[in-house]
């Protein structure tokens, strides 16, 4: 079962500048920066109530975030929903006709297991499922 919005993912071409902008908007500092080498990104997180804002900067030219920014520029990248049982949600959504971008959950930033749904099945929005690892 989906419990809440876990985070909003925002692609930025410069993490330092993105952090400055969102620190002013939210009137807080990011609580964490983390490199996710496998995905070719560096992230920072701002806590907003029970949810987070995640900024994503490409650390490799061939990373999905680098491709996204090259195609669309910075901005809203994905919405992530929290679940207590990511495998059950993956199975449920697959049975509903959604295409998953991986067959198994994989490690993501901020101590999460993650799986993405293909945006052609989700009204053009990249959707991420998250569970605490």
From TrEMBL:
GO terms for molecular function: metal ion binding; methylmalonyl-CoA epimerase activity. GO terms for biological process: L-methylmalonyl-CoA metabolic process. PROSITE patterns: VOC. InterPro entries: Glyas_Bleomycin-R_OHBP_Dase (IPR029068), MeMalonyl-CoA_epimerase (IPR017515), MMCE/EMCE_epimerase (IPR051785), VOC_core (IPR037523). Keywords: Isomerase, Metal-binding. Residues 4-132 form the VOC domain. Its EC number is 5.1.99.1. It comes from the Bacteria. Belongs to the methylmalonyl-CoA epimerase family. This is Methylmalonyl-CoA epimerase. It comes from Luteibaculum oceani.
């Amino acid at each position: 079962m989906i419990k809440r919005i876990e985070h909003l993912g925002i692609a930025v071409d410069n993490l330092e500048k993105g952090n400055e902008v969102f620190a002013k908007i939210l009137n807080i500092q990011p609580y964490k920066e983390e490199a996710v080498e496998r995905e070719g990104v560096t992230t920072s997180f701002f806590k907003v109530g029970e949810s987070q804002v995640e900024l994503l900067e490409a650390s490799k030219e061939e990373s999905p975030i680098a491709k996204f920014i090259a195609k669309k520029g910075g901005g809203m990248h994905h919405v992530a929903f929290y679940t207590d049982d990511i495998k059950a949600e993956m199975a449920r959504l697959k049975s509903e006709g959604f295409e998953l971008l991986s067959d198994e959950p994989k490690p993501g930033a901020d101590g999460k297991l993650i799986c993405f749904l293909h945006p052609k099945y989700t009204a053009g929005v990249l959707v991420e499922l998250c569970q605490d690892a």
